[in-house]
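Lab notebook, bench 4. Still working through the backlog of constructs that have no structural model yet. Next entry is a single chain of 996 residues. Request: give me the structure tokens for it.
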Amino acid sequence: MKIQFDTLDYQTDAVNSAVRVFEGQTIKESNFTITNDVPQGTLFASDGIGVGNRVILNEEQMLKNVNKTQILNGIVPSDNLFGNNKAFPQFNIEMETGTGKTFVYLKTILELNKQYGFLKFVIVVPSIAIKEGVLKSFEITKDYFKNQYNGVTYNLFMFDSSKLDRVRSFASANTIDIMVTTIQSFNKDTNVMNRENDQLSGARPIDLIAETRPIVIIDEPQSVDNTDLAKDALKNLDPSAGFRYSATHRDNTYPKIYQLGAVDAYDNQLVKRIEVAGIEMDEDGNRAHLKLIETKTGKNGITAKIEVYKKTRNDADKTIMNFKAGDDMFSKTKLQVYDKVGFIQDIDATPGFESVTFSGNPEKITLESATLEDEAIKRAQISKTIEEHLNKELKFKQSGQRIKVLSLFFLDKVENYRVYDEEGNPSLGRYARIFEEEYERLIHLSKYKELNDVNVPVSEVHDGYFSADNKGKLKNTKGDTQADESTYEMIMKNKEGLLTFYDEEKHHTAKANKIRFIFSHSALKEGWDNPNVFQIATLIETKDTITKRQKIGRGLRIAVNEDGERVPGFAVNTLTVMANESYKDFAEGLQKEYEEDGVIFGVFNKDSFATIITHYDEVTEEMEILGKEKSEQLFNYLKQEEFINSSGRATDKLKQAITDQEIEVPEEFIDVVPQILVAAKSKVKSLDIKDAKDKVEVKVVKEALADDFLELWNKIKYKTTYKIHFDSNKLIEFAAKGNESFDGVDSIQTRKGTYLYKKGMVEMSQAGVKADESSKSSVRATTSGAYKLPDIITFLQNKTSLTRKTIVAILQSVNNLDSFKNNPLSYMNQAAKIINAIKNQLIVDGIEYTRTNDEYEQTLFSTETLNAYLGEKGNSVKVDESKQKTVYDYVVTDSSIEKDFARKAEMDDNVKFYIKLPDWFKIRTPLGPYNPDWALLYEEDDEQHLYFIVETKGNTSFEQLRPHERAKILAGEKHFKAVDTDIKFKRVSDEAEIRV
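Model written out:
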């Protein structure tokens, strides 16, 4: 199989954010002499001329571009272009793990070349694991990108100190060339890259690289340039600019130009939902539980951390306590059951021999020896992981989805997976043996008999990712050795095979096709993932060194089906973490890890409202924002009125205002109350982690599948086809001159070297000029001399996918090409937006749906497996089954707005039946599939009406939706009109509006 790639809006936004930094740049290349002494047989330009990047923007212009991008992305504009490393401008791009940052920066490289002609790029990574991940991403995306970028030639290579000719060819290549290197390869004087070399006629490799003025991509900068040596090393590359990609930026001195944080990624279902399950043994202190956590030597002697029960006011809780020799266990725990253990006689902190000796029973506990309780818990963890895995396979099988399920077990010792006798013959380690026993027990249960791999031998369904010695014997490593490099290569090589079902008819019989359970060394904890990892369990005996973020990072990516296509939505994408602790402890620990990395949840500051947009022109991208000064005024008011407490966190008063969608503010802020509430709501969100104990399987209310359901279903069940009547002459006319909805290209006005920033934008500029807030004046940076005019026809072809003939006809119909000469890039960008807006409008206006004999499959309501989460953080509403008003016993929702809608529909006696339409109910439109929200059967004055509810997005008006989203809804409306069953189509923000 081959992984497929889609055009995803958030990834496109991230790419465009980097590309906008150079707006105003024209295509230039910089030539330099490589050497006068050309050794025979090396790969470089025959004239000895190297080819590099050349940035012609000044710092002031670049900062204006950055500020414009920041405001478009809701980020407070930066006052400075440079961060801690002032040698070259660098920009932070925040992308949550699993959202495709490697894909994004590879696409950014190609887009920077397409728009500005940049050729030389260096990707700097912190580890071998991430280096191998970059290489794998390059390989699997190459065909896709070549198709997207008209077959452009581009190469990527790993820096190898034994192959310095490749550095020479990098310097001289006149095509896109990308070098990938770890920071460790050039952060010391002794590195080959920093030493003069005869192969390069006495030059240092780093000097040749620096001459190209590369654009540097820094992957995980918190691990790359976290020392002065590393910063100096990057400086020695003499970059034109740098883009820093990470989920958690610790150095926030660099301007952030794009952000997709954890909360936004989860809210928009761009990664898997996380649920936590745990195996806990809680005996309320009725047994003298003793588990050695660690021993250490310090200033006060040798101490030990031991997990015990300790008496509380009401009962006893399991906790980790510090002990020293001589401590009496009964006195420390206050529990009678520890009296028989006695006191601590000795603590041994010798590595490999850690232990604590007692005067009573047990005589000794060690770090290495797993107790019977430990083994019982590990067995339960393995068993529940297998059960979750098989249940997920069954769910996908029953719903007809060909998605291969994978589970991942982390181990800290190879011998727990595989052991060897004296002659080197392998056999199962302890956890591998337990796995096979539990798998054999579960797979033969009757409910799993229809699964695809039920007859595959247990020994072939699991395998291990461990490094090996030269005899092939698995061994423990730290994750950063030469042996680990080949292990990462194996992981990457097997990626597609692991995603492919075992199928003899299709000849998919490779070893990787049979594997569904992966055991991996805990040292291999970063740099790789697999989109179809749905369960992760940690079987660690000693101290767990894998962070919670590293664990979930291996499986956060959206799953793919057997054809390599992404399958979005939480109905499919839930990652179950089998934790060694309670759900509460895991959730709190994960949030703490985010905060330690600089991601602070729920804290307001004086700039929190600065980027509220008070006016925005979609075509010209001109905007007015609230600005820093007014944001600070609003922040102080909210603190004074106790909406925000002294720590900057929301009070219950503000949370209630968000729920009520009403808040009292000074008169000058009344017009932006909706935006204030949206900004406030985004701040009070935290990570939405589900507790597996709250999960219930949604059941069909069979009695409800009767008259009212059938009456409603018969109104909406029909499918349609569509054709588009597209008038090219109208497109040319409207694009040039405009229509009732949009201004045409003829309306574009530009000024030479001008970036128009109305009052809000001007406040943020580096130039120090501040427009009077009551005026409409702008800041301009005038550039002398004429611009070299770019190829506007090719540019607009690429941006609009129209023919060259149509583009020429539009441009021949306008009278403002002087504006193009004044500011070519601004004119072209505005023209592209106008043409695309007109084109999409004409597509929707010209779409004609026709009802077919095909119908949506009603039986899917009975066969689809749905899960609901209960509790305060749940995603469902329990229905009154006796009313028989909907299909299931729980309504599973995507937002708090939908939960509120479902509750009100339950209570509304006029609503006779309602359905939260499932993911599989998709309407085809020219702009992509459209999934409506609700269908209702509504009774009023004894007359029944069907209202089809399209959007339930709180106070978001239809006009505020993105044009692309609006167009899909309008197309959906035409679909239901063609179905012709007296359906009424409504858009509401609240259930009560149905009556209006």
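Notes after review: The longest strand covers residues 301-311. Confidence is low (pLDDT under 50) at residues 35-47, 753-785. Flag for follow-up if needed.
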